[in-house]
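Recall that a protein's primary structure is simply its ordered list of amino acids. Everything else, from secondary elements to tertiary packing, is in principle encoded there. The following example makes that idea concrete.
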Amino acid sequence: MRKKIVAGNWKMNMNLADGLKFAETIDNYFKSKPTRTGVILCTPFIHLAGVWEILKNGKVSLGAQNCASEPSGAYTGEVSPQMIRSTGAQYVIIGHSERRTYYHEDDKLLNKKTLLAISTGLEVIFCCGEVLKERESGRHFEVVNKQLDDGLFSLPKEDFKKVVIAYEPVWAIGSGATRVATPLEFIEIRFYIKKIISDLYDIKTANNLNIIYGGSVSSL
């Protein structure tokens, strides 16, 4: 049976000492309050090795927020999937809307990152989602379909076991969110994604896939 998961991404926040303290708080919380839900903590690169030492005997998994598209070489400032894996991390976020927007990462590049990350043993949290204009014009299904088609669908069926899809409508992310997605809006996109994958691969692959919501939430 597919395990439910929740992933937290603290983005570009906290210095090393504060990040390790925060990770320890999270680790202690889930040790005292066991859950059947898989919990993933996605940290900046500088925190990975230290946070792994805190989490490695607990219930919380570790992920990175991004990775390079090359395995090694003269790419100053980049961090390869193999380097991430060597810290103890099990996951990496690929295609976050902030990477797409601020760093102009396109689906061809994200596909390259995804293939490389999976080949090194990482599991991929692949992000997709539309901007408000695309939602209001009724193009959200088309946009998500293209992002997944170009970014993920070159994967063989076996590798989909190593993928989590995060639907993150750009209009519902962070403090600048224009509004919060309703449960119905998420449910319909979730069914749409599962239908695409079922048609492309098979029903079992679609049913075993985790699709999570990656936007803001309200008390409702």
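The mean pLDDT is 93. Residues 68 and 91 are 14 Å apart (CA to CA).
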